[in-house]
Design brief:
By secondary structure, the protein is of the alpha/beta class. The protein has 9 helices and 10 strands. Helix content is 34%, strand content 24%.
């Protein structure tokens, strides 16, 4: 049996009396496109934060290709190929779209100079590829503070992709995007990720988005996994219907 790309074993995390992770055991194979669902406080973001190194578990271990990464910094983990976008995009608002991408590409290269972020031809070429992938060419020279929420979200994901990650975690990729824009925005993201080697895991509240764009769904409730499988199977699960989707 092949080694999972990511393996989490016995993860536990408490915040005072609140249990955010309760003996979580999750394996993710390379090349999967999966989502995590659950109500607020179910432990979804806690899991993502532990996997990416922004939060350390109280118990358990996390392995990337069989290597223990549990106690590594988020910078080290990103350098090993686990990257994320954020529910609220982490962007430099005063910089342009292109400048933000150049900073991300330079950081991925490990030789970023904040004084000369645009001075490397290879960085510019990679930034241009990302602009095209996410259809951001028309916004390249606009300051981020001028952009709508959906465009900022696309830029945040493009910046995460600048590191050529092996595992890309998207935290609520359609949050802040209008109902009319959510499907086109997600289609654009998935089209941009085609041809990339990244395994994709996204946290999402919108069940229509989950059903359309996931091949596997993991359902969280009270820090535990209550269902794991194909979208239709998970959506039909009685605990999922009771605790997450609110169906009878």
């Amino acid at each position: 049996m092949s080694t999972p790309l990511l393996s989490a074993r016995g993860l536990g995390k408490k915040f005072g009396a609140v249990v955010a992770a309760d003996d979580l055991c999750i394996d993710i194979a390379a090349g999967q496109r999966l989502s995590i669902i659950g109500s607020n406080g179910a432990g979804k973001t806690t899991f993502v934060n532990m996997v990416t190194g922004y939060l350390k578990p109280d118990e358990g271990c996390i392995e990337l290709d069989g290597q223990d990464i549990t106690q590594l910094s988020h910078q080290r983990i990103a350098g090993m190929g686990i990257c994320r976008s954020f529910q609220i995009p982490q962007l430099c608002l005063e910089l342009t779209v292109l400048e933000n991408l150049l900073v991300a590409v330079g950081a991925a290269d490990g030789r970023l100079s904040l004084w000369r972020p645009a001075g490397n031809k290879l960085w510019r070429e990679r930034a241009q590829v990302l602009l095209e992938k996410f259809a951001l060419q028309a916004d390249a020279n606009r300051q981020v503070l001028e952009l709508a929420g959906g465009v900022r979200k696309l830029l945040d994901i493009a910046m995460a992709l600048a590191r050529a990650p092996r595992l890309l975690l998207l935290d609520e990729p359609t949050s802040g995007v209008s109902a009319d824009e959510k499907f086109p925005a997600m289609e654009r993201v998935m089209e941009a990720l085609q041809g990339e080697a990244a395994t994709i895991l996204f946290v999402e509240h919108d069940m229509d988005i989950v059903a359309r764009f996931s091949e596997r769904v993991i359902a969280f409730y009270s820090g535990r996994v209550i269902a794991d499988g194909p979208p239709a199977e998970v959506m039909a699960n009685l605990e999922v219907r009771r605790y997450i989707t609110g169906e009878k």
